[in-house]
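Regression check, coenzyme A case 157:
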Amino acid sequence: MMNFVSRLLTRGKPAFSEARPADAAAIAAVHGASFQRGWGEDEVYRLLVGSNVVAHRATSSGKLIGFILSRLAAGEAEILSVAIAPGWRGRALARPLLDLHLRRLAGLGVRSVFLEVGEHNAPAGRLYRRAGFREVGRRQGYYERGATALVLRRDLG
Ligand SMILES: CC(C)(COP(=O)(O)OP(=O)(O)OC[C@H]1O[C@@H](n2cnc3c(N)ncnc32)[C@H](O)[C@@H]1OP(=O)(O)O)[C@@H](O)C(=O)NCCC(=O)NCCS
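Current build output:
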């Protein structure tokens, strides 16, 4: 009875876990809805099976509603992409997803995490700054249409 009640109460509540190669299609769909240049399912699959890639997902009632994905090299990680499905944004889901991801990276011995973010991407900028990322560089004209990317860094541990 308690199991039934607790299942009922947590139904639809977002959960955070490691992403698997089987999530490739769902990740490609959320990515495509979030960025101008979408990733194909094959591209995502190849990343997910890579030994140097770490990925996490947010799910609700078994449906993938967000992801974050990093590539590791020589004690550093680069966050390649993070996105929450459009209908789920603004509910502070990215923060616990990022926190879980950073804890996993730290557990794998990663010392510094880098990423690029558009200088006018306010939600992403706030998310990263709240999580302790600081600007360490700028890449002018990095994006299509000439927008500037900020390079952010956070040291772990
Ligand atoms: C960036 C993204 C992952 C954030 O996910 P989210 O779960 O919606 O994030 P939150 O609800 O925690 O909001 C993050 C912060 O942005 C703020 N925010 C949300 N929408 C905003 C908007 N339209 N303008 C300004 N700030 C906004 C929130 O208030 C929060 O700041 P706070 O913690 O200081 O209050 C999500 O917006 C997204 O998927 N965007 C498209 C993909 C993308 O740009 N990814 C990042 C590439 S580097």
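Comparison notes: The pocket of coenzyme A is lined by residues 34, 82-84, 89-95, 117, 121-124, 126-127, 130 (CB under 6 Å). The chain has a mean pLDDT of 93. No diff flagged against the previous build.
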